Amino acid sequence: MAIAIKNIPLLKEDVAIAFDNKAEAAIAKKSTVKFTKQLVVFAKILKKAKI
Predict the structure, then answer these.
(1) 42 vs 34: which has the higher pLDDT
(2) How far apart are the first and last CA of the chain?
(3) Which of 11, 22, 35, 45 would be 16's cystine partner, CB 3.0–4.6 Å?
(4) What is the pLDDT of residue 4?
């Protein structure tokens, strides 16, 4: 029994360019996550537990 192969949708022309531009903008806009507040809480917990 054969399984049908589904077509893979492709982006063409203007749609592909727009997608690429949005992807590049998202990459440039990325930011880092700061855990300073969580580290302070963590340090207090360890200090209280005397570890």
Answers:
(1) 42
(2) 63
(3) 11
(4) 84
> Is 19 a domain residue?
yes
User: 20 and 27 in contact (C-beta within 8 Å)?
Assistant: no
pTM of whole model > 0.90?
Answer: no
Q: Buried (b) or exposed (e) across 12-44, using 16+ Cβ within 10 A?
A: eeeeeeeeeeeeeeeeeeeeeeeeeeeeeeeee
Domain of residue 42 covers 13-49
Domain membership of residue 45 (yes or no) is: yes
Instruction: Specify the number of domains making up the chain.
Output: 1
